[in-house]
Structures are given as C-alpha cells and as structure tokens.
C-alpha cells in the first residue's frame, strides 16, 4: 500500500511548527515515523498535511532540572537507552527500552512519538505512568502541563487538542538506591506486549516498603496504575506472601481481547508480569 496524497512541511523552529499545526486542517506531526508511516501506508490515517519535526533541535534535548529530568519529545529512543544520566537515575526507562521494537526502530523512534501514538501495548507510556511524569504541551494559544495520569482520554487518544504538540516530558527522580524492573510477555522479542509491568520500589533500612509504583501495559485499552496493589504494599515488609497478594490484584483489571489474546489470558499474564517485576525490583532495592 501507499499513502494517500499529502502536502509535506518541514519547519526548522518550534514556533514555525506550531504555526503550521494551527493554520492547516487535517495535519499530523511527523516525529520518528515508526508508527505514523505504516498507518499512512495502510490508510488507517489520511492526513492532508504532514509537518516534519526532525529539524527542530529545541525538541531534542535532555536536561537536568530541579524536578528531575526534562526530555524533549524528539529525543530518539536509542539516545535515551544509551544516555548515562538515564541509566544512573532512571534505570527503569533504560530497561524498558530494551523491549521496544528493535535497535533499527529505536534509532528513529522518539519518546514523543510513542506517547502521542499511545498504543496501549507500548512500553514507554507505562514507564512514565510509574514515574508520575508530567507532559509539556504547546500550541500557538499557549502552554499547559498534563500529568501522565490524565494523558490518555481513550484508546490511542492522547490529551491533545487541535493545533497542540507534545514538546517535552518532565520525569521526577526517585531516591538513590530504589529498586526497579520491567517485565513483559510477547510472542517474540520486539512484538507487541501481551502484558507488561513497570515497577519502582523504595525500601527503608528495615526492608519495609516506603514507596511503590506499578503500571501495566498491553492488558487494557490504556496504561493502568495498580493503586490498590500499591497501597497494599506501602508500610509493609516486602515479604513473599505480601507481594503475591498484591500481584494477584493485577488479575482484576479490565482487559481487552483481540486477535493476539483473550481478555482472560491477558489478565492472567498481568498477574505473572506484576509478580516477576515486583520480586525483581524488591531484590534490587535490597541489594542497593
């Protein structure tokens, strides 16, 4: 298949890109193209205008801030995977990136592209949900900040209005020595996740859970935070029986069925990946 006809625009500044998106009807921004181009080729989407963001350097920076790390929407996934500051303070993201497609796709794919496409099986939205990230959105009308918990409005529908563009992600840092793990089940490496779990854990000196975050990908029609399981663990010793009880709650989340798996199978996998990720994260926290 080939895409329907469209007009191509290549702004070199963020201001020019926002002007394009505001002025044009049925326009789509082009980031890494790893999701948009196949959808255009199959004519699942037929934009009249494509606005290429690849010349806009201000969208491709990784910066330390008082609140943690600010990552531009056009930062390549491979650059994130290899960035020392990400490995040191945000190891969950680096581990999850190893499950994202293949090196070839990560060389082109961007953080903002994945978040804007918002496939429910994508790994990066789950990581940012666990990290309580805040997304920076801009348009010619101004700027706003969207918590990751408010980013998804429905199946593959991000919280973006007409003419708006995701520009950066702000990730708060967890304490040094926290535990982390990303686990997923897929038919083959690089395939979509049938279920994935992103977990962060902080323990006190006595091994009691001080803080925990659990996010699921691929199970429901959007990323899911397991707040009930988190509350079950906080303030408790990270004992195996307690972890098992918390992991079982993942089986209660609303799942969906498609050609790859039934709802019931995804719910069973949700328990498996949550259990694996919790035990691995707790072990890493103890070791740290």
Alpha-beta classification = alpha+beta
**What is the CATH fold-level name of the largest domain?**
Enolase-like, domain 1
Q: In total, how many domains does the architecture comprise?
A: 2
Helix content range: 25-40%
Largest sheet: 5 strands, antiparallel
Strand order of the largest sheet: 4-5-10-6-7
Radius of gyration: 19 Å
Note down, in words, how this protein is organized.
- The chain folds into 2 domains: 107 residues, Uridine Diphospho-n-acetylenolpyruvylglucosamine Reductase, domain 3, CATH 3.30.465.10; 109 residues, 2-Layer Sandwich (Enolase-like, domain 1), CATH 3.30.390.
- By secondary structure, it is α+β, with helices and mostly antiparallel strands.
- A 5-stranded antiparallel β-sheet has the order 4-5-10-6-7.
- It contains 11 helices and 14 strands.
- Helix 9 packs antiparallel against helix 10 and helix 10 runs antiparallel to helix 11.
Write the layout of secondary structure elements.
Layout: E1 7-9, H1 14-23, E2 27-30, H2 36-41, E3 49-52, E4 62-65, E5 68-72, H3 77-82, H4 84-89, H5 91-97, H6 103-108, H7 111-117, H8 123-130, E6 134-139, E7 142-147, E8 152-154, E9 157-158, E10 165-171, E11 179-185, E12 195-203, E13 209-217, E14 224-225, H9 227-233, H10 240-248, H11 263-287
Parallel strand pairs: 1-3, 2-3
Antiparallel strand pairs: 4-5, 5-10, 6-7, 6-10, 8-9, 11-12, 12-13, 13-14
Helix pairs in contact: 5-8, 9-10, 10-11
């Amino acid at each position: 298949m080939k895409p329907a006809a469209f007009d191509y625009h290549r702004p070199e500044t963020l201001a020019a890109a926002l002007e394009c998106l505001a002025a044009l009807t049925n326009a789509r921004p082009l980031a890494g193209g790893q999701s948009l181009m196949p959808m255009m080729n199959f004519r699942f989407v037929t934009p009249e205008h494509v606005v290429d963001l690849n010349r806009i350097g201000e969208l491709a920076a990784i910066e330390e801030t008082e609140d943690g790390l600010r990552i531009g929407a056009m930062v390549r996934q491979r650059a994130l995977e290899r960035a020392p500051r990400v490995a040191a303070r945000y190891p969950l993201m680096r581990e999850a990136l190893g499950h994202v497609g293949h090196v070839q796709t990560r060389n082109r794919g961007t953080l903002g592209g994945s978040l804007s496409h918002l496939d429910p099986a994508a790994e990066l939205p789950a990581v940012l949900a666990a990290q309580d990230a805040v997304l920076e959105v801009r348009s010619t009308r101004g700027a706003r900040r969207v918590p990751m918990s408010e980013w998804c409005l429905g199946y593959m529908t991000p919280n973006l209005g007409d003419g708006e563009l995701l520009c950066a992600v702000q990730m708060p840092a967890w304490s040094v020595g926290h535990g982390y793990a990303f686990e997923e089940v897929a038919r083959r490496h690089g395939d979509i996740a049938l279920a994935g779990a992103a977990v962060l854990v902080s323990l006190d000196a006595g091994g009691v859970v001080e803080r925990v975050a659990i996010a699921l990908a691929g199970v429901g029609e959007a990323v899911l935070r397991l707040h009930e399981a988190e509350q079950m663990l906080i303030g408790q010793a990270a004992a195996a029986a307690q972890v098992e009880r918390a992991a079982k709650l993942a089986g209660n989340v609303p799942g969906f069925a498609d050609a790859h798996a039934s709802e019931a199978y995804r719910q069973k996998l949700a328990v498996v990946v949550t259990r694996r990720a919790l035990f691995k994260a707790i072990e890493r926290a103890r070791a740290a």
